[in-house]
UniProtKB/TrEMBL annotation:
This is Methylenetetrahydrofolate--tRNA-(uracil-5-)-methyltransferase TrmFO. FAD binds at residues 9-14. Signal peptide: none annotated. It comes from Sinisalibacter lacisalsi. Its cofactor is FAD. It is found in: Cytoplasm. Its EC number is 2.1.1.74. Catalyzes the folate-dependent formation of 5-methyl-uridine at position 54 (M-5-U54) in all tRNAs. Its main location: cytoplasm. It catalyses: uridine(54) in tRNA + (6R)-5,10-methylene-5,6,7,8-tetrahydrofolate + NADH + H(+) = 5-methyluridine(54) in tRNA + (6S)-5,6,7,8-tetrahydrofolate + NAD(+); uridine(54) in tRNA + (6R)-5,10-methylene-5,6,7,8-tetrahydrofolate + NADPH + H(+) = 5-methyluridine(54) in tRNA + (6S)-5,6,7,8-tetrahydrofolate + NADP(+). Keywords: Cytoplasm, FAD, Flavoprotein, Methyltransferase, NAD, NADP, Transferase, tRNA processing. Gene3D superfamilies: FAD/NAD(P)-binding domain (3.50.50.60).
Length: 447
């Protein structure tokens, strides 16, 4: 008898997972709640609907991590990439698509397979039996959200992200910044030096506040409410409440001594905290923001020590349901407390169409291997897919976990290459060459 794989959510991740599993010969049932239950962002009842921009971002597989992810997915026979390539629109180096034709292509392909059934229903519970992949996305239905909370605890499922900008460690000027935790707190030397501190004098602070207030901000989408405000204010909103608010909040200068100028008392201090186990990424603590991306880069480079900062991702605040995957999922994306269930896509804490589809592809392959009794070696963390899954299932700091785009900061460094901006082209090429070879090796070893 053929085994059935149930997939909840026919979005980017669910559609890709369904394709992988159906092509491997499993019976697949996609449970998709639209159009019966609507979300504020989706407009149709179709599978793989792009809810906002029509871009899959850079298609450069040598110098860009998301371009590399495209490459890996194409090499694995991805339906998302085939649909995107078929309905590509001119967009310079980016992969932009005709969104309706893209979604129609995915629908036609999946609904045309004899072993795929699409059921128009909302799933509101986490089944204890059968093989399941939940890929319900940033707008997971309320009823299912309640079921996830009942299983995992309220503090493990967030309904808004509050993303502080993330900086590549190598781009921080350590002749200005220094490592120290406030009041030198911590049991170990590592903990006592867990934060990087960037000092500001009064003039720098005042100029920074002016820039924050003047910067262009993004608006919420229709239907997105701002109920997050109680717990997590954007820094520009804090600044609007009073010019000193930040100096008493995330930028307070207390408990810190400038290692470079021990006699100088900073007027304010911006702190960065390690964001991944590799130590390649740091987030700017408490700096969640709704400033436009261009404005963010400009304003944050005013911070002493961050003048040449490269950002792995910029800040944002969105309606976004995501789980604390580093504590809840095992390395094969299974819910630790109910291993018959995998999660995939944006609900696992990756962000973006491509990243979500990639996690669907991986969850599909892992499910096929499990159901057919084959063993699949772990995905090398040197690949884009592997770097992402390693991040969400363990590499990221669980306490401060926020959604993540794919970026080179998630990859284990290639040793012996020049650091800094000058060496960047060679470094990225080395990352992508290594990733491509390792991904091909992994594909050859698996389903
Ligand atoms: C307003 C908004 C704008 C965005 N803009 C962009 C952008 O411009 N670029 C970008 O890359 N990413 C954007 N994103 C993120 C984007 O949603 C994801 O990148 C991508 O769609 C996630 O794929 P997914 O498969 O995880 O979720 P989705 O594509 O959202 O698919 C999840 C599916 O699950 C269904 N579902 C939910 N709950 C249930 C249930 N209980 N039972 C059955 N079905 C269910 C939903 O109807 C949906 O079809 C945006 C998100 C939002 C909310």
């Amino acid at each position: 008898m053929t085994e059935t794989l149930h997939i909840v959510g026919g979005g980017m991740a669910g559609s890709e997972a369904a394709w992988v599993a159906a092509r491997a010969g499993l019976d697949v049932v996609i449970h998709e709640m639209r159009p019966r239950v609507a979300t504020f962002a989706h407009q149709t009842g179709k599978l793989a609907e792009m809810v906002c921009s029509n871009s899959f971002r850079s298609d450069d597989s040598e110098q860009n991590a998301v371009g590399l992810l495209h490459w890996e997915m194409r090499a694995a026979g991805s339906l998302t990439m085939e649909a995107a390539d078929t309905h590509r629109l001119p967009a310079g180096g980016a992969l932009a698509v005709d969104r309706e034709a893209f979604s129609q292509f995915v629908n036609d392909r999946l609904r045309g397979l004899p072993n795929v059934t699409v059921v128009d229903e909302e799933i509101a519970a986490l089944p204890g039996e059968g093989h399941w992949i939940f890929a319900t996305g940033p707008l997971t239905s309320e009823a299912l959200g309640r079921a996830i909370i009942a299983e995992t605890g309220a503090e493990r499922l967030a309904f808004f992200d509050a993303i502080a900008p993330i900086v590549y460690a190598e781009s921080i000027d350590m002749s200005v910044a220094w490592a120290q935790s406030r009041y030198d707190k911590g049991e170990t030397e590592d903990e006592r030096r867990a934060y990087l501190n960037c000092p500001m004098d009064k003039a720098q602070y005042e100029a920074f506040i002016d820039a924050l207030l003047a910067a262009e901000k993004t608006e919420f989408h229709d239907g997105e409410t701002a109920s997050y405000f109680d717990g997590c204010l954007p820094i520009e909103v804090m600044a609007e409440r009073g010019r000193e608010t930040l100096r008493h909040g995330p930028m307070k200068p207390v408990g810190l001594t400038n290692a470079h100028k021990p006699d100088e008392k900073a007027h304010a201090v911006v702190q960065l905290r390690r964001d991944n186990a590799l130590g390649t990424l740091y987030n700017i603590v408490g700096f969640q923001t709704k400033m436009k991306y261009g404005a963010q880069a400009e304003v944050f480079r005013m911070i002493p020590g961050l003048e040449s900062a490269s950002f792995a991702r910029l800040g944002g605040i969105h309606r976004n349901t995501f789980m604390n995957s580093p504590t809840l999922l095992d390395a094969e994306m299974r819910l630790k407390s109910k291993p018959n269930i995998r999660f995939a896509g944006q609900v696992t804490g990756v962000e973006g169409y491509v990243e979500s589809a990639a996690m669907g592809l991986l969850a599909g392959r892992l499910a096929v291997a499990e159901i057919t009794g084959r063993s699949l070696p772990p995905v090398p963390p040197t690949t884009a897919v592997g770097a992402l899954v390693s991040h969400i299932t363990g590499g990221a700091e669980a306490k401060t976990f926020q959604p993540m785009n794919v970026n080179f900061g998630l990859f284990p460094p290639v040793e012996g290459l020049k650091a800094g901006r000058r060496g960047r082209r060679d470094r990225y090429k080395a990352y992508t060459d290594r990733a491509k070879a390792d991904w091909q090796g992994w594909l050859a070893a698996g389903v």
